[in-house]
Design goal:
Number of domains: 2
Helix content: 55-70%
CATH topology of the largest domain: Rossmann fold
CATH architecture of the largest domain: 3-Layer(aba) Sandwich
CATH superfamily of the largest domain: NAD(P)-binding Rossmann-like Domain
CATH class of the largest domain: Alpha Beta
Bound molecules: NADP nicotinamide-adenine-dinucleotide phosphate
Strand order of the largest sheet: 3-2-1-4-5-6-7-8
Strand content: 5-15%
Number of helices: 11
Radius of gyration: 21 Å
Length: 273
């Protein structure tokens, strides 16, 4: 059985442990995890039945596939810490953005890949982005695709497009929630409904819209045409969105793109390959 190591049991690390078990990707006893703070790790181990390692090296030593669920600027230090116990037989997979495969390959004798999960895997849906390093084998690709296929839809891409796609699939849930939040705020500014009540209505509409798109395999354009009949009220709002949203989304992707580039420069400056 494949042993899965998880270093860092914050939001992403704990989500991976919980969902891999919940969706049957592996058994709890096949996961060994370590983290900087002992409290949250012990709580996660108690809740799920995974093994709590004494330190990062123990988790790294035992793992066939080792996920590094830490911030981008922490990846290098942890790989350096674990390098004495890592071997070419292992697969190391940071889930951090903007740590290039070339750096990862230079920092460890293990094979390397990158995965960008999504918080929506909590309900077994969403996209996990995967990009593979040169030394990765067909068996590695199959193993990662199977693991993430249990909790999401894996999407294999190149490192060049990973940042842009991350904004869609990993930042995406926060962007969509922010749009819904602003929409509810705008309704409450009109008067007649408070913000919490407006958010409850928007939330249910958001969930139902996603379900309709999914169940009926509709494109967004088809759904818009079904609701926004010519000269109808919805069409007025859709026209405003058509005018204003291209600039909003261009600005969002420009801002996130700039942040990706500065983070990558910072990773490469502090930790050259
Ligand atoms: N959140 C998302 O939706 C999302 C989606 C895709 C990718 N990611 C990526 O996932 C990574 C983790 O994000 P997160 O949201 O899970 O962050 P987080 O909640 O802050 O978790 C990071 C974890 O790493 C631990 N850690 C820090 N230094 C460590 C060390 N030296 N040894 C062992 N553990 C250490 C922290 O321990 P302490 O508790 O002691 O601080 C914490 O538990 C980031 O690179 C992020 O870009 C996040």
């Amino acid at each position: 059985m494949t042993t899965i190591g998880i270093i860092g049991t914050g939001s992403m690390g704990s989500m991976l442990a919980r969902t891999f078990i919940e969706y049957g990707a592996c058994r709890a006893e096949d996961i060994i995890a370590s983290s900087r703070s002992g409290g949250p790790l012990s709580a996660l181990a108690g809740e799920t039945g995974i093994r709590a390692a004494a330190d990062n090296r123990e988790a790294a030593r035992e793992a066939d596939i080792l996920f590094l669920c830490v911030k981008p600027l922490q990846v290098r230090d942890i790989m350096e810490e674990c390098a004495p116990v890592c071997t070419p037989a292992q697969l190391v997979v940071p889930v951090a953005s903007d740590v290039p495969l070339a750096c990862l390959s230079a920092w460890t004798p293990a094979r390397v890949a990158r995965a960008i999960p999504t918080i929506t895997s909590r309900c077994g849906r969403g996209i996990t982005l995967l990009a593979f390093g040169d030394r990765v084998t067909g068996a590695d690709k199959a193993a990662l695709t199977a693991l993430f296929g249990a909790i999401s839809r894996p999407y294999v891409t190149t490192e060049e497009t990973l940042c842009l796609l991350t904004d869609l699939t990993s930042c995406g849930p926060a962007f969509i929630a922010a749009v819904a939040d602003e929409w509810a705020a705008a309704a409450s500014r009109r008067g007649g409904i408070d913000r919490r009540a407006a958010e409850a209505l928007v939330r249910e509409t958001l969930i139902a819209t996603a379900l309709v798109l999914d169940h009926h395999e509709m494109d967004c354009r088809d759904l818009i045409e079904d609701v926004a009949t010519p000269a109808g009220i919805t069409r007025e709002g859709v026209d405003v969105l058509g005018e204003q949203m291209p600039r909003v989304w261009d600005d969002i992707l420009a801002a996130t793109g700039a942040r990706h580039r500065s983070l990558r420069r910072e990773v490469e400056r502090r930790h050259p390959p």
